[in-house]
Write a structure and sequence with these properties.
The structure holds two protein chains of two kinds. By secondary structure, chain A is of the alpha+beta class. Chain A folds into three domains: 189 residues, no CATH class; 57 residues; 188 residues, no CATH class. Chain B is an alpha+beta fold. Helix content of chain B is 47%, strand content 22%. In chain B, the strands form two sheets. A four-stranded antiparallel beta sheet of chain B has the order 1-2-3-4. In chain B, α1 runs antiparallel to α2. The chains are: A alpha+beta, B alpha+beta. Chains A and B meet through β19, β20 and α12 of A and β4 of B. β19 of chain A pairs antiparallel with β4 of chain B, so a sheet runs across the interface.
Chain lengths: 499, 170
């Protein structure tokens, strides 16, 4: 069986045979329900399938159902048979399809993030899906569904090891999983609290008050009926947030930041160091009472296209207090580039005016944002640009200098009248859209020039894509364990060294 | 030359071809003839007595407003084209545009993923092309319309070569 071996260079592997069933169980269940219901119902009613007319109909139904079921099963088997993957020469390749064949390949050293996803049913069977993101805004580069959990983890370690440059593909297989250290665990209580105090709750209370007022004023009870679907919808929204946010754990390892979360469906994300393109810390008004913040990140490849799941994937910290925010910031930006990061970040989170060196909107333009002008501002450390905004919805955006893609200055007629301009930093698609609002024109222009220069310098300093390659190689584990098949060793020795 | 408040000082801007005005005029004509034609239909129907609603003044006012807007845009076109500029610096490309809503953008060579050159039918008649730069960011909406074909080709080669030399990952 190829099941137990993973990622021998050049070998093609199949995914787990049960995968099409796990993926397509809804279709199977629908077929069985549709064709079997009649028979089943009659059996339940104790009428049996004996009646003359009924008998014929039942046979036809069962036969039709059987054919459809066989077709579905056949396509499952075929799709499994033709789905194969290979890890070789610094690439991962996946072949799929039997009518329309598709081969996808992705360069290992371009990996932006790796996710291991376990939907509930896959979890029951101990299976997991591996998702491999490269930088192409939107579509997952490579999905392998499903593998055994241990196998998926092993494959992830191998891919990350090669991408990091500690394993060059010449050794047999077994790249050890990088040790990790848990740095944050989110208790369920706080998750519930954060949901209760979230923006959507605020609007629910508001709309509830409004609807009660309306029903009192119009003296019509029917209004309440319209609320039922709304409540159901909200219930599912809350449930989804709870389901995905449950058990949120953040850990660090040499492979990068690891996030794990989920109640029924679980997901483990690994974001290698330096792959975070931009970050924002936000605080809705109600969270201010308890001093909570939330962190979103842009990672190339997460994109914003698959919004439903992307929403949670870009959450680096669903809810956390200030020390946890500081810790996450230090993980994302190990070298803050200032002497006093605590003070700078605090000023960014809660500060006003020119605290800690932030440059804000000039007083002459206060009318353009009467509330926010004292807060809209920027501060540039040696390694990152901090942009803060929002008086009620506080927001702090951080972009590492070497991650800036391009920069633009915008100025409309009104802004020109007040001598202010906006500075927009372009970053990979995601929830963070860095924009410096209404800075004095000369400040914005100065920053435009300096930032272009800083980004240039930072890019020159940036080391190779292989983030661990500079370090001395980590000791490899003992050579292949005794259970390894002899064929496996032979096949790898024949492989030329692609290092 | 037109240099505005938000341009970085000391930059020598290159302008796009004045012939690009023609391309914009054609686009303007096609777009506005269709719009105004559609909005004039109620007027026609009211005049013919097919429709009772809208009243005549409204049926006249709506297409008239669109016509005014279109004429205003028409007047702006030559100035807008003159406002488009680009400058090649050592490490990045500067692109500016706009009169009322100005935008100046800097795209580092090392950040360019690929360069597109497209030619539309009207552009082909006039020997022009549009150059588009792509970075990893969707926000980088960097396109330079109305370049003479030779200049477009030169710029494409130049940018690719410079991008190659300064290529950085994400």
């Amino acid at each position: 069986m190829t099941q137990e071996q993973t990622a021998v260079d050049g070998d093609w592997h199949r995914v787990h045979p049960a995968s099409p069933f796990v993926r397509g169980w809804v279709a199977l269940a629908a077929i069985i329900y549709f064709f079997g219901r009649d028979t089943f119902e009659r059996a339940l009613q104790g009428r049996g399938t004996m009646g003359d007319n009924f008998n014929e109909r039942t046979v036809w139904l069962l036969a039709g159902g059987g054919v459809v079921l066989l077709l579905a099963l056949g396509s499952f088997v075929l799709s499994w048979y033709f789905t194969r993957y290979q890890l070789a020469e610094g690439y991962v390749r996946v072949n799929t399809g039997f009518l329309f064949k598709q081969q996808r390949q992705a360069r290992l050293d371009r990996v932006q993030a790796i996710d291991i996803v376990q939907p509930l049913l896959a979890r029951i069977f101990g299976l997991a899906e591996l998702k491999f993101e490269v930088a192409d805004a939107g579509h997952s580069a490579v999905r392998l569904s499903y593998l055994r959990l241990a196998q998926a983890k092993q494959l992830r370690a191998t891919i990350l090891g090669r991408a990091a440059g500690i394993a060059d593909g010449s050794e047999t297989v077994e790249v050890p999983e990088a040790p990790e250290q848990v740095v944050l665990y989110l208790p369920p209580g706080r998750l519930v609290g954060s949901l209760i105090l979230s923006e959507q709750s605020f609007f629910i209370v508001l709309s509830a008050i409004a609807s009660v007022l309306v029903s009192v004023l119009t003296e019509s009870r029917a209004f309440i009926l319209y609320l039922i679907p709304a409540i159901l919808g909200l219930g599912t929204a809350y449930w989804r947030s709870f389901n995905t946010g449950y058990n949120f754990t953040a850990a660090i390892s040499p492979d990068g930041i690891r996030l794990r979360y989920g109640l029924l469906d679980t997901r483990a994300q690994t974001v290698p160091p330096g792959r975070i393109q931009a970050l924002k810390v936000t605080q809705p008004p109600l969270w201010r009472i308890l001093g909570w913040y939330r962190i979103h990140v842009n990672v190339a490849g997460y994109g914003e296209h698959h919004r439903s799941e992307g929403e949670h994937r870009t959450l680096l910290l669903p809810v956390g207090r200030k020390p946890e925010v500081m810790m996450m910031l230090s993980l994302v930006l190990p070298d803050p580039g200032t002497a006093d990061p605590e003070r700078v970040f605090t000023a960014g989170l809660t500060g006003l005016d020119s605290s800690a060196g932030f440059v804000t909107t000039p007083k002459r333009a206060w009318i353009l944002s009467p509330l926010g002008w004292r807060r809209n501002g920027f501060f540039s450390t040696d390694t990152a640009l901090l942009l803060r905004s929002g008086r009620l919805w506080r927001k702090l955006v951080m972009v590492p200098h070497q991650r800036t893609q391009s920069i633009a200055v915008h100025q409309g007629p009104l802004a020109r009248l007040f001598g202010v301009a906006d500075l927009v930093l372009h970053t990979t698609p995601g929830p963070v859209a860095p924009r410096l609002i209404q800075a004095a024109t000369e400040e914005a222009l100065g920053l435009f020039d300096q930032q272009a220069a800083r980004a240039r310098e930072a890019r020159k300093l940036q080391s190779s894509e292989q983030w661990l390659a500079q370090l001395p190689p980590v000791a490899m584990p003992a050579p292949a364990p005794p259970t390894t098949h002899a064929t496996q060793r032979a096949s790898t020795q024949e492989e030329p060294d692609h290092g | 030359m037109h240099t505005a408040a938000i341009d970085p000082p000391g930059v020598q801007w290159l302008r796009v071809s004045p012939k690009y005005v023609t391309v914009r005029l054609v686009e303007w004509a096609i777009g506005n003839v269709i719009t105004i034609g559609l909005f004039s239909l109620p007027l026609l129907f009211v005049e013919l007595g097919w429709w009772k609603w809208p009243p005549l003044w409204l049926a006249v006012a709506v297409p008239a407003a669109f016509l005014l807007l279109a004429l205003w845009r028409l007047v702006l076109i030559p100035r807008q084209v003159r406002a488009i500029g680009y400058a090649e610096r050592d490490d990045d490309l500067l692109i500016r545009r706009g009169i009322f809503f100005q935008r100046t953008m800097v795209v580092p060579y090392g950040r360019m993923q690929y360069v597109d050159v497209t030619v539309g039918p009207v552009e082909r008649l006039l020997g022009l092309c549009t150059l588009k730069l792509h970075t990893a960011s969707a926000g980088t909406n960097a396109h330079l319309p109305g370049l003479p074909a030779a200049e477009g080709a030169r710029l494409r080669e130049q940018l690719s070569a410079r991008g190659e030399a300064r290529l950085a990952g994400l």
